[in-house]
Structure formats: structure tokens, C-alpha cells
Design goal:
By secondary structure, the chain is α+β, with helices and mostly antiparallel strands. The chain has 4 domains: 129 residues, PAS domain (Beta-Lactamase), CATH 3.30.450.20; 114 residues, PAS domain (Beta-Lactamase, 2-Layer Sandwich), CATH 3.30.450.20; 155 residues, Reverse transcriptase/Diguanylate cyclase domain (Alpha-Beta Plaits); 249 residues, EAL domain (TIM Barrel, Alpha-Beta Barrel). It is built from 24 helices and 25 strands. The protein has an 8-stranded mixed β-barrel with strand order 16-17-19-20-21-22-23-24, surrounded by 4 helices. Strands 2-1-5-4-3 form a 5-stranded antiparallel β-sheet. The chain binds ligand C2E and magnesium ion (2 copies). The site of one magnesium ion (MG) has 5 residues, from β21.
């Protein structure tokens, strides 16, 4: 049975390998997507100059699948891929990425489905189309013979019409175009476009087409519908004609779930909408809407319940922002361009609707507002992405559990935005030029005060702004899915420094380093850790892996499997920041880790309470330490700042401690006892 399945898979691989279309076959193994093979077409489209064969492309996919994707699209694609892998159904996304030998981003459309081999093994087959190229490949100018052209017109799913330049006669209109134009008459040769569809005035129509000609894709209002048109002037059957192409995929501009326009459509429409708002004397406003808690809602009540909420939100937005430009960006993110008029009243209405729909379950409507945008005529692309980012950033300032439901983009947010841009723009340079350094913070045994390890923490020593702490760059890297690159860099540095330390005979003190939840989305972290430690000859018992508590509670099964893999080959795994999120004792019990790091806030709470003479926080700390020990796990308390706190930990039986009282994070060369 197995060998039959193998041969069936091999057969599939053989078939895909040499396809001219861009196709890939994936398999979902151990909670990760593994690339089984890529076609010649996909290799040609996606490899980079340094990737000489398919194996190199597949290796990159394993470590960083979305390197060439626009960061704001990468998150959406990753989450759709995950949904597809876990729940099946159809996979379909459109996103921007850099294809081989193109400097600018191209639009890619990918569609996938699952295929079951005879033994039940499931593979996913995904077909990619570079939309820009597909359109230009079909450029009608390349069609040499008349028959080939007619044949192409008849069979194309791109909507195409041909109009005489001399008198506007509609010479040809293929089926997709007939559907798209919603004609008032049946198509027949000899009629003009205005006779065929309502809403085209001759002779303006010809001027209009001439105007669009040569400007690439343009948004047009034709036959009562909005469409994206491309017009080419050419000769056909010995006459000068305009060939009008409309967009090939209806779905290209709409979200399949809510039917709302997507970001591409938003981009097309934005300048026209702003002009309309201004002409009516109004002030344009960008609003970014995010439903907080959607992920938890989905996992508690199921995706169909989540989908119902999203549909309800879409419907509500259509009512509240009637006639405005509304788009569904991805998942639970929406964008609205409207007029500054009773803004908060309208947002309140939308928020109340969502509250009702969620029936008190934790799901919060949050909105970021960017007011009074003034469009610079010359750089529309830049402007839209800035407006989008600003509204989004304003939204990101709203606390998860706070009562506030909206926030405006202001000076403070602007500074944060500038900072974010700086970090993103300089991140690669910061690694290349080693501005990012590893600091080591000592870990001691509480009872004997013996040094038992170091935690490795990243520091960015910037030539312009001085020392930047992780709190000011790690969340940005996480949000933009770049944290994996940082962690690879830190791991490499730590292993190199550990090997050098050992060479000098400076003792076998283990180091721990942090990995973020997001690292697991972009490749096989376990494999990377194994490879890097092996490269420098660092033994696994010298490396502890810290994974935050939130990662465990998000996906206990998957993270649990990864923990097992690490532990099996001798790495210790520590659960970091325990007590900083909504911990579940169940998670604690299920997770097979070696040690629990109690978050700084336990000691902070004790400190604060002491002022008022209370003792509940101290009791809690004691109970948690006992509980963790009862489960057979080691305890480490973070954030020890005083002798008194150290004494408390000794009394409660905590095994290890870390904090400013014992030693601040410092560069390796400043640490004496190693
Ligand atoms: P963490 O892993 O919980 O690291 C402990 C943090 O507590 C460090 O902050 C450390 O400087 C700070 N700390 C240590 N002792 C004390 C104390 O006595 N009092 C107080 N108030 N704080 C103390 P840091 O270095 O700013 O790092 C913050 C977080 O950033 C880390 O929390 C970790 O989650 C993340 N991080 C740092 N470096 C990396 C990295 O290389 N990769 C990843 N993925 N995350 C990192
Ligand atoms: Mg840590
Ligand atoms: Mg911690």
C-alpha cells in the first residue's frame, strides 16, 4: 500500500516537475507545510539570482516562504495557507510579491486544492499566476493571425471588446465582456457601444477610450458598472480599432466571504473617492477597523460562527458608511474612506451592532482614524500606503481590553510610525553591520547563589539613536514577520560566542535564547537550531530554548510537538513569561517543558502590595511555585531587584532567579565570571 502511494506521489511529482505553469505540491507534516516539489514554471517565476536549482528554492521556502511578499500581504497569505492546511476547502489568495527579474511588486493569484493519494495521504496542489504577466502575455498585439485572434477572443476568460476608432462601431464583444457590460441589447455587428450598453455617450466614448489607451489598467465607469479597463490601439481586419480588455477575474477585486471590495479595488478607487469628497466640501477620513479577539472567537465557536460575524460587520459597515468606499482587507481587517461627518456616531452604531452579534463574548470593535489627508498628486501609491499605515497604526495604539474603541492618528502615533519605518528600513543593515548585539543576563540558583546560566537578549546599538531596547524593535519585527531573521542571527551569534568561550576553556555554562511564536510560521525552527549548533559544535545541553507562554496557549498541540522534538535531542525548553497572559493550568499540565519562568509581574505585584500591607500577591507567588514544582518542573523567577525579593524566593523554594539585583544584561566581554 505504502509503495503504491509512493509511486502515485512520484507520478504526481513527475507530472508537476516539468509543467510550464507555476505549480507547487505541498504536504502538511507535523503541523508544518513542506514543499514536495515545484514546477519548472514556478522555479522560473520565483527563484532569486543566487538560487541555481529547485532545491535551493525549496530550501528557502522551508525557512522563509514569504521573503518576496509585501509584508502586509504576507500575514494574510500565511493565515489563509494555515486555514487551508488545517481545514481544507479551497485556497485562493491574491497578493503582491517580487518575481524573478522584476524590481517592483507583481500581483500574484494563487489557487489550491487538496488531493488524496490512494492510501489517504493528502497533498495540496497550488497553481500560481502572475497576473501582470498573464495579462501582458495575452496582449492582443502579439496575436498574429486573424483566426488565432478570434479563437483567443472566443475562448478567453478575459472580457474583451473591439471598437472601431473611426466611428465607434462595436466590432466584437466576447462572452465575458457581454456579461460584464450588462447590455441593453443583444450584441450584433453594426451597433455602437452606446447602443449596446447604457451609459456611454458618443463621441465622448471614443475620447474616453483614447484617454485610457496607453495608461495601463484604469478604473472606468462603463455600462453602469465600475470596471478596470485596459485599452490598446491596434489594427484589426485592416481598420484602426481600440481593443478593450476588462479584468479577467471578477473575484480579483472582491473578498469571497463578505463580497466587499478588497485592497486592490480600494487602490483603484481611492483618488476618485477623495476627489468626490473634496468637491462636496468635505474632509476625507481613512478608518482602519479591526475586530480584536477574532482568533479566539473562531477557535471557541468555530469558523462558521466567525464568518457570520464578519458578514454581519460587512453588512453593518455598508449601512453605516452608505455610498463610501469600504474594503475588506483580510481576515478581520477592514478599511473605510469616508467624509468627516458624525464619525464617532457612525462608529458607535457599528460597534453596537457587533456587540449585539457577538452576544457579550469577547470580541471588540476597534478603529484607527486618519483625518484630513491631503493627497500629493504625484505619488498616489505612496500616499495611499501611508494613509493606510497611519490609520492602522492609530488602531494598534488601542489596548486590547480597554474601553476605548477608536483612536486618531496624532503626533505620538506619528513618532511611533517614524520609528517603525526606521527599524524596518535599517533592520538588515543593523544585522550586516552588527549593530545588533547579544547581551547576557546571568541566572543564579537561589539557594547556593551559584551561576547556572545566561539569558541572551538582543540589543540594537544604533549609530544615530543609541541603544534601542527589544521592547522598541521586537514587536515591530514580529508584526512584520521578520523576527525569524533576527532569531536566526541571534542564534548564530550565541553559538559562535559559546564555541569561542569553550575554546578558551571558559566553562560549560548554558545559555538560553528566545524564540517568538512567529518563528514557527516561517520554517522549521527545530532544524535551524540543530543545524546552527552543529555548525559551531555546541552541544544541545548548553542551549535552552525559551518560548513564551502565549505561544503555548495559542496552539498547544502544535507547540507541544515542537517542544518534544527539541527535548528528544537534548535541548531544554523553558516556558517564558508565565503569568503574563491568561494562563491555563491545563496548558501547564499538558506542556512537557523543563522549566517555567515566572514573569516579572509576580514580584512587581508583591512589591506594590507590600506598600499597602497586603499579602495576596505573595501567597499567589508561593502557590504558583509549589504548583509548578508539584508538576515536576523547575522554577525560575524573573525580575529580582532586591535582596528582600531574593529572600522571599528562597523561602518559597524557587530554584533559580534572574534580575537586576543579580546582574543586568551585558555584552559578553563585560562579564567576568564565565
Ligand atoms: P524576556 O525573555 O522575558 O526577557 C527578560 C526581560 O526582563 C529582559 O528585557 C530583561 O532585560 C528584563 N529584566 C531582567 N531583569 C530585570 C529586572 O530585575 N527588572 C526588570 N524590570 N526587568 C528585568 P529585554 O532585554 O528588554 O527584553 C524584553 C523581551 O524582548 C524579552 O523578554 C523577550 O521576550 C524579547 N527578546 C529579547 N531578545 C530577544 C530575541 O533575541 N529574540 C526574541 N524573539 N525575543 C527577544
Ligand atoms: Mg526570555
Ligand atoms: Mg520573560
Amino acid at each position: 500500500m505504502w509503495s503504491k502511494a509512493m509511486s502515485e506521489l512520484e507520478h504526481l511529482i513527475q507530472w508537476v516537475e516539468h509543467a510550464r505553469h507555476a505549480v507547487a505540491v505541498y504536504q502538511y507534516v507535523d503541523g508544518k507545510v513542506k514543499t514536495v516539489c515545484v514546477s519548472d514554471g514556478l522555479f522560473e517565476m520565483m527563484h532569486s539570482p543566487d538560487e541555481l536549482d529547485k532545491a535551493a528554492l525549496i530550501a528557502r521556502y522551508a525557512t522563509n516562504m514569504y521573503r518576496n511578499t509585501v509584508p502586509e500581504d504576507a500575514a494574510r497569505v500565511a493565515s489563509e495557507a494555515k486555514r487551508f492546511a488545517q481545514q481544507g476547502g479551497r485556497y485562493e489568495v491574491i497578493y503582491r510579491e517580487k518575481v524573478y527579474q522584476r524590481e517592483t511588486y507583481s500581483l500574484t493569484h494563487s489557487v489550491g486544492f487538496h488531493y488524496y493519494l490512494e492510501d489517504g495521504t493528502r497533498v495540496a496542489i497550488v497553481v500560481y499566476t502572475c497576473i501582470d504577466e498573464a495579462v501582458s502575455e495575452h496582449q492582443l498585439a502579439e496575436q498574429k493571425s486573424e483566426n488565432a485572434l478570434r479563437n483567443f477572443l472566443d475562448h478567453s476568460n478575459i472580457a474583451i471588446a473591439i471598437v472601431s476608432q473611426a466611428d465607434g462601431e462595436l466590432l466584437y464583444c466576447n462572452r465575458p465582456m457581454q456579461r460584464a457590460l450588462k447590455p441593453i441589447n443583444n450584441f450584433d455587428t453594426g451597433m455602437t457601444l452606446p447602443v449596446y450598453v447604457k451609459g456611454c455617450e458618443d463621441p465622448t466614448m471614443l475620447n474616453y477610450l483614447a484617454d485610457i489607451e496607453g495608461r495601463g489598467n484604469q478604473l472606468a465607469h462603463i455600462g453602469g458598472t465600475d470596471a478596470v479597463l485596459r485599452v490598446t490601439a491596434m489594427e484589426w481586419e485592416e481598420q484602426a480599432v481600440y481593443v478593450i480588455e476588462s479584468d479577467p477575474w471578477d473575484t480579483l477585486y472582491h473578498n469571497a466571504l463578505t463580497g466587499l471590495p478588497n485592497m486592490s479595488w480600494f487602490r483603484y478607487r481611492v483618488s476618485e473617492c477623495m476627489r468626490r469628497i473634496r468637491e462636496s466640501g468635505g474632509e476625507a477620513v481613512f478608518i482602519y477597523i479591526n475586530l480584536y479577539g477574532m482568533r479566539g472567537y473562531n477557535s471557541k465557536f468555530g469558523f462558521s460562527a466567525g464568518d457570520r460575524i464578519l458578514k454581519r460587520l460587512a453588512k453593518t459597515l455598508k449601512q453605516v458608511f452608505d455610498g463610501d468606499l469600504i474594503c475588506h482587507l483580510s481576515e478581520d481587517h477592514f478599511m473605510v474612506l469616508t467624509q468627516n461627518d458624525n464619525l464617532e456616531g457612525r462608529l458607535s452604531t457599528a460597534r453596537n451592532e457587533i456587540r449585539k452579534a457577538a452576544q457579550g463574548k469577547f470580541l471588540a470593535f476597534k478603529a484607527g482614524i486618519y483625518l484630513d489627508p491631503v493627497m500629493a498628486a504625484d505619488d498616489q501609491e505612496q500616499y495611499i500606503s501611508e494613509a493606510y499605515d497611519r490609520a492602522r497604526l492609530a488602531c494598534a495604539t488601542i489596548k486590547k481590553n480597554g474601553r476605548k474603541a477608536w483612536a486618531y492618528f496624532d503626533g505620538k502615533v506619528a513618532d511611533a510610525y517614524e520609528h517603525q519605518l526606521y527599524i524596518l528600513d535599517h533592520f538588515q543593515q543593523a544585522m550586516d553591520e552588527r549593530w545588533i548585539e547579544v547581551y547576557y543576563q546571568p541566572v543564579y540558583r537561589v539557594d547556593t547563589r551559584q551561576l547556572v546560566g545566561y539569558e541572551c537578549l538582543a540589543r540594537w546599538r544604533d549609530p544615530e539613536s543609541g541603544l534601542i531596547s527589544p521592547a522598541d524593535f521586537i514587536p515591530i519585527l514580529e508584526q512584520h514577520h521578520l523576527i525569524g531573521l533576527l532569531d536566526e542571527y541571534i542564534l548564530d551569534t550565541v553559538c559562535r560566542e559559546t564555541a569561542a568561550r569553550q575554546e578558551k576553556g571558559l566553562g560549560d555554562i548554558p545559555v538560553s535564547f528566545n524564540i517568538s511564536r512567529d518563528d514557527f510560521n516561517y520554517g522549521d525552527v527545530f532544524q535551524k537550531v540543530c543545524d546552527t549548533t552543529a555548525k559551531y559544535g555546541v552541544a544541545p545541553h548548553l542551549i535552552n530554548i525559551e518560548i513564551t507562554e502565549s505561544a503555548f496557549s495559542d496552539e498547544p498541540d502544535y507547540i507541544g510537538q515542537q517542544v518534544k522534538r527539541f527535548r528528544k535531542v537534548g535541548f531544554s525548553v523553558w516556558m517564558d513569561d508565565f503569568g503574563s497572559e491568561y494562563s491555563s493550568l491545563g496548558t501547564l499540565q499538558k506542556m512537557d517543558v523543563d522549566l517555567i519562568k515566572l514573569d516579572t509581574r509576580f514580584l512587581q505585584a508583591c512589591e506594590e502590595e507590600e506598600k499597602s500591607g497586603g499579602h495576596r500577591a505573595a501567597d499567589l507567588l508561593k502557590a504558583v511555585i509549589q504548583l509548578v514544582k508539584a508538576l515536576g518542573l523547575s522554577t525560575l523567577c524573573e525580575g529580582v531587584e532586591t535582596e528582600a525579593q531574593m529572600a522571599l524566593l528562597r523561602e518559597y523554594g524557587c530554584e533559580k532567579a534572574q534580575g537586576y539585583f543579580l546582574g543586568r544584561p551585558q555584552p559578553l566581554k563585560k562579564i567576568k565570571i564565565i
